[in-house]
Amino acid sequence: MPQTLSAAPGLTTGHAPFVEEARERGHLYITQAYELYSEENHEAWRRLFARMRPRWEQYANPHFLRGVEALQLPPDRIPRLDEVNRRLEPLTGFQAKAVSGYVPGFLFFDCLRRREFPTTITIRDKDHMDYLPEPDIFHDVAGHVPMHTQRAFADVLVRFGDCAHTAVEMTAGIRDYAERARRLTSIMRAMSRFFWFTVEFGLMRGPRGICAYGSGLLSSYGELQHAIESGAVQRYPLQMEWVINQGAEIDHYQPLLFIVDSFDHLFGLVDRFENWMREGKLDNVAPGLPQIAESDLRSFMEAGRA
After folding, report:
1. How far apart, in Å, are the Cα atoms of 31 and each of 109, 174, 175?
2. Is residue 294 part of a domain?
3. Residue range(s) defining the domain that contains residue 151
4. For residue 102, how far is the Cα from the chain centroid?
5. pLDDT, tens digit, 9 for 90 and up, residues 78-137
């Protein structure tokens, strides 16, 4: 259960005692502690929201725009997660769940399977509006959560969660620890790449042409426009063979993006991904980025223990 901890005012990314203390105590799921947000925190949200809104209207997919309206995300203050959830849950069953930081891989996908989205409560400093190497509440709530109001997309997230369970199931009988770790690492790398090039940086066909549905694009003022308009970006229909073997780099604008026709199309691709896993086609994907953290691998290895 979330616990209230001692803290100082302010929930700025990298400078939030409330969150840091929760992590130190091993508390992954926490309260939002809304009263700790400073005026500077709310000002950061206001600035981010104000400059993103015109770009959403120009480049975001229609489902996202309807989601922003359905959730009634406030333009002038950080949203309260309980208010967001009251509007979100009746639509697709999803809930935003406050966390103290990074969620190990299997736990993250298991949350999605339960229709819970791990949500960061801190917000970036007002002097770092353009780029943050880790999620914040603007990325999570303004970038991800509006998409969770769309049932077909929400069902895609649940299927990703199913795939994590399938990965554990398919490797549970391997007695050799090193071999099980090797296969799981390959599967996790494939899954991370697939998730990265769809849920985080996906493009889709829309009524006005190519538009964005990936949260990494929808929460980035510069990259959203770049992804749609720049001649430096390669854009191709999503091919599973390519995506699962394509390295994913986080420290620059994406030079290669993939397009789906619809969320029903994406759902079918996740089904194919799971079938390939069962057939052993993901046991030896190309090495490279992303690197699989020991904590993520351990979360999958330990999930198989009864």
Report:
1. 20, 39, 40
2. yes
3. 17-303
4. 11
5. 999 999 999 999 999 999 999 999 999 999 999 999 999 999 999 998 777 776 667 999
- Binned at pLDDT 50, 70 and 90, residue 175 comes out as very high
Any domain includes 6: no
> What DSSP assignment string belongs to the chain?
--------S--BTTB-HHHHHHHHTT--B----GGG--HHHHHHHHHHHHHHHHHHHHHB-HHHHHHHHHHT--SSSPPPHHHHHHHHHHHHS-EEEEESSPPPHHHHHHHHHTTEEEEE--B--TT--S--SS--HIIIIIIIGGGGGSHHHHHHHHHHHHHHHHHHHHHTT---HHHHHHHHHHHHHHHHHHHIIIIIT-EEEETTEEEE--HHHHT-HHHHHHHHH-TT-EEEE--HHHHTTS----SS--SEEEEES-HHHHHHHHHHHHHHHHTTTTTTPPP-SSPPPHHHHHHHHHHT--
- Predicted confidence at residue 249, as pLDDT, reads 84
Domain at 112, CATH number: 1.10.800.10
Instruction: Determine, yes or no, domain membership for 183.
Output: yes
223-269 confidence digits (pLDDT tens): 999 999 999 999 999 999 999 999 998 888 999 999 999 999 999 99
Domain total in the chain: 1
Nearest alpha-carbon partner for 123 in 36, 68, 42: 42
CA angle 26, 31, 34 (to 5 degrees): 135
Is 219 inside any structural domain? Answer: yes
The pLDDT score that the predictor gives to residue 304 is: 66
